Amino acid sequence: MSAALPIVIEGLRYRVGDMPILNGIDMSVTSSGITAIIGANGAGKSVLLRLIDGLLAPTGGTIRIGPSDRPPPSTAFVFQRPGLVRASAAANVALALAPLGLGAGERAERVRAALRHVGLAERAGAPATRLSGGEQQRLALARAWARAPDLLLLDEPTANLDPASSHVIEDLVASMAVAGTKVVLVSHNLGQVMRLAEDVVVLAAGLAVEHGPVRSTLSSPRSPQARAYLTGEMPWTSFAALS
Amino acid sequence: MFQTLEETFRRLAALDPEVVAIAGLSLRVSLSAVGLGTLVGVPLGALVAVSAFPGRRLVTGCLNAAMGLPPVVIGLVLYLLLSRSGPLGGLGLLFTPGAMIAAQTVLVVPLIAALARQIVADAEEHLGEQLRSLGLGPARRAAILIYDTRFSLVTAILAAFGRAISEIGAVLVVGGNIDGHTRTMTTAISLETQKGDLPLALALGLVLIAIVLVVSATATLLRSHAMRAYG
């Protein structure tokens, strides 16, 4: 895992047909720790994460991850829904290792270690789709952990989980960040953002309207859009706007 | 009518050698065709579902349209290809069970491919983004999604078996309905009905229905058992 992984985004645009989603995002993310991205529904958070991962191609602007003189970093993506195949828990972790070209022995060892790391060693042979919601998301994290990524992208990984399961996931994410993986987290859970992140980016209408240390940004936002989001006073919550 | 039924059940109870031979050939031809059709159709459908290429919608449309190809036309085209003056005449397959297997394979490949494409495309909506984020290429994604949807794909294969074993046009044209050689249940039912041997036609009809029901029930049971075991 790399410890020097700044993410530099310049003029990033993305549109679907005539609909603009991102309107020229400029931001630079620190090379370590956990960066949170927050914003109202439709602000472009999930699209931004997919653009960083390369799942989507931007319609304008650039994303640079890590130094340009080094090979592209390895990434892992954990989605809101764990996205598990109808196979055993161990098989789900193993398939994530398939593109890495590991030998059978090393692959099996990494699978065992990953399941042990997330507390699912005893459930290795269990059908993944039969695990509880919390266990499934832990399995998704095990799949990411096994790849030893430089960059971990999380799109609302605890949105469907109870508080206890959410805390387990948070602990696992925090441990990966401590071990050197750069983490970018999209979340609507401001308590979680406060607990995990060092810095936070606020998106509004496809723009990064604020970026700063998590405590000061959440307690004293400078931009009117960030203030409106954090106080729940978005334009569409106004009765006047609705009428 | 009563006598016909009595004779029908007598033949069935005695395991009439003619009925057994015809049913055996039908099963051999249709199971072989569905086996070959599965080997071709499932990967084809899955690759179309997961790959992005120009003309994908056209290919999907062609697969869907080909599901309804008339068996007798497939038989006719294959007849022209396999006849002595045709480009594949040298194979000497015409009027053999091999030609019948080929005809039914051509019949079921579009059906299996189109259904597999739809099943895998539905799974791709849930898993595709995750698999792409792992850096897996189209072939590997297709293989994983085939595995993920294996229980649903059984239904597609069953539908193909039902279409193969119950069709008459293709096997009649390329098989010739030769007694003891290429006579299947459907061609024999048609012929024996015209000849007036209703007990034999009825016995074959009952066997045909029983085979379809037994295969369908067995596959359904295996599918539900496997789903319970593997999620």
From TrEMBL, chain A:
Whether Transmembrane helix counts among this entry's keywords is: no
What InterPro entries does this protein's entry cite? AAA+_ATPase, ABC_transporter-like_ATP-bd, ABC_transporter-like_CS, Molybdenum_import_ModC, P-loop_NTPase
Q: Which GO terms describe its molecular function?
A: ATP binding; ATP hydrolysis activity
Coiled-coil-forming residues are none
Q: Has keyword Phosphoprotein?
A: no
Every copy of the ABC transporter domain together lies at 7-230
Provide the alphabetized UniProt keywords: ATP-binding, Nucleotide-binding
UniProt similarity note: Belongs to the ABC transporter superfamily.
What protein is this chain from?
Answer: Arginine transport ATP-binding protein ArtM
What's the source species for this entry?
Methylobacterium bullatum
Upper taxonomic lineage: Bacteria, Pseudomonadati, Pseudomonadota, Alphaproteobacteria, Hyphomicrobiales
Automatic annotation (TrEMBL), chain B:
Q: Which CDD domains would you find in this protein's record?
A: TM_PBP2
Entry keyword Manganese: no
Q: Which GO terms describe its cellular component?
A: plasma membrane
InterPro entries the UniProt entry points to: ABC_perm_TupB-like, MetI-like, MetI-like_sf
- Fetch the Pfam families from UniProt: BPD_transp_1 (PF00528)
SUPFAM superfamilies cross-referenced by the UniProt entry: MetI-like (SSF161098)
Q: Where are the transmembrane segments?
A: 20-50, 62-82, 94-116, 151-178, 198-222
Where, subcellularly, is it found?
A: Cell membrane
All residue ranges annotated as the ABC transmembrane type-1 domain in the record: 23-219
Q: Which family does it belong to?
A: Belongs to the binding-protein-dependent transport system permease family.
Under PANTHER family, the record lists: PERMEASE COMPONENT OF TUNGSTATE ABC TRANSPORTER
What is the protein's given name? Tungstate uptake system permease protein TupB
Organism of provenance: Methylobacterium bullatum
